[in-house]
Amino acid sequence: MQYNPDFLNPRPIFNVQEHAHLAALSQNLPLSILLSSPRNMEEIGIDFVHIFAGQLQSLFRRHFGIL
């Protein structure tokens, strides 16, 4: 595997419009409300595991050259 310094540079996840949209959403639905609901906590946990597994799969594919 070749060393690629571009992988070390941080890449923005959200653009300016998406940041503004997320800020507006957070004003209408604070994190404290989301965290106080057991159903929301379970759903957030499942989403996290699903996203993490996809990222891990992508990392292994890149590392081992599997397309």
Quick check: average pLDDT? Answer: 85
Spans with pLDDT under 50 lasting ≥5 residues? none
State the secondary-structure class. Answer: mainly alpha
Q: Which series of helices and strands comes N to C? A: HHH
Number of strands: 0
Sum up the overall morphology in one term.
flat
Helix amount, in percent? 55-70%
Instruction: Estimate nothing, just give the exact number of structural domains.
Output: 1
Kindly provide the radius of gyration, computed on alpha-carbon positions and rounded to a whole number of angstroms: 17 Å
Strand content: under 5%
Question: What oligomerization state is this entry in?
Answer: single chain
Largest sheet: none
User: How many helical elements?
Assistant: 3
Terminus-to-terminus distance: 14 Å
Task: Lay out the secondary structure.
Blueprint lengths: L15 H13 L2 H5 L2 H27 L3
Written account of the structure:
By secondary structure, the chain is mainly α. The chain has one domain. The protein is built from three helices and no strands. It has helices at 16-28, 31-35, 38-64. The longest helix is centred in the last third of the chain and has 27 residues, at 38-64. The model has no long low-confidence stretch (mean pLDDT 85).
